[in-house]
Amino acid sequence: MEELKQIIEILTKKNKTIATMESCTGGALVNNITNIEGASEILKFSAITYSNEFKIKMGVNPQIIAEYSVYSFETAQEMALNISKFANSNYGIGITGKLNRIDKYNLQGADNIVYISIYDKDKNIYHNLKIEVTKKTRQENKVEVIEKIAKELLSIINLKD
Q: Which domain holds residue 35?
């Protein structure tokens, strides 16, 4: 994926790092990042927190999940912030949502919406994306989500400091 290659090059030049906390994408983002040479220069840490229990263990406030649901911008922001803090990275990416699947443990929310938050520690701001997945398979939906995250992250890191 060309955008991810560009992201690695730019972050390396800027001496900046990222960390990810993924849920519904199951590590697809970090897998795509690590498929590119030079990823070890910018990737600090990644966690796959499929369950609420492990989102909370990684720092997500349980009150946020209770109030807004695990499928929300608020939870994605908590994921992005806490993974950035945990890894001491410049950018934290939180991904939560459903890929055309009913979650019997978390019935709230549409079954085809993914919430993404990219936290910029240096500016203390969040960039949020809401993606309605449209593909038939989980794998295709993951690709769709990763492509949109890559485009958004590339535009964020290209902003002047």
A: 2-157
